[in-house]
Specification:
Glutathione peroxidase, GPX_AS, 8 strands, alpha/beta, two-stranded antiparallel sheet, Glutaredoxin
Length: 184
């Protein structure tokens, strides 16, 4: 029963999260473009390749109520890929909803949602073992202003063309929501 309470608390906390944004006057302390991470295909990706592009970074999971957002992410990628790059980070941090291996995750995404946007290897996005990308996204000493960790699967972070984190969107905000589209 206590486990159910904790899960319900996490879920409703995720649903009630608010959009958070930069005031526009706080530059990052360290560069997003210095980061590197491994793709779901085990290829190293240097984030300097994303210079001059807007990025939407999303923590994903295959067994979540928000999993259908994969379709919205792919639609955003197809329709606005010239304006924004989608980066997906599978994680098992919330309710054990991403139990699969990288191969299983990649197959699931391709088969069920036709995902063609860049996916990265499964990793942690919260807590002491979070990956380097989420360390940067959630540490105001690195990104200049934000310390908001993901509150559930499918939280979104928007980075502008200068590599500056500008907004955090909770899970309930779909990738095709006007709040995101208006910033493209």
């Amino acid at each position: 029963m206590q486990t159910l309470f904790i899960i319900m608390t996490l879920f409703f906390g995720a649903c009630n999260s608010q959009v958070v944004s930069n005031d526009g006057n706080t530059p990052p302390k360290t560069s997003f473009y210095d980061l590197k991470f491994t793709s779901i295909d085990e290829e190293p990706i240097n984030f300097s390749k994303y210079k001059g592009k807007k990025l939407l970074i999303v923590n994903t999971a295959s067994e979540c109520g928000y999993t259908p957002q994969y379709a919205d992410l792919e639609k955003l990628n197809e329709e606005y890929g010239d304006k924004i790059v989608i980066l997906g980070f599978p994680a098992n941090n919330f309710g054990g909803q991403e139990p699969g291996s990288n191969t299983e995750i990649k197959g699931f995404c391709k088969k069920n949602y036709g995902v063609t946007f860049q996916m990265f290897e499964k990793s942690s996005v919260k807590g002491d073992d979070k990956n380097v990308v989420y360390q940067w996204l959630t540490d105001k000493n690195k990104n200049g202003w934000n310390d908001q960790e993901p509150t559930w699967n499918f939280c979104k972070y928007l980075i502008n063309e200068n590599g500056e984190l500008v907004k955090f969107f909770p899970s309930k905000i779909k990738p095709t929501d006007q709040q995101i589209l208006s910033l493209l």
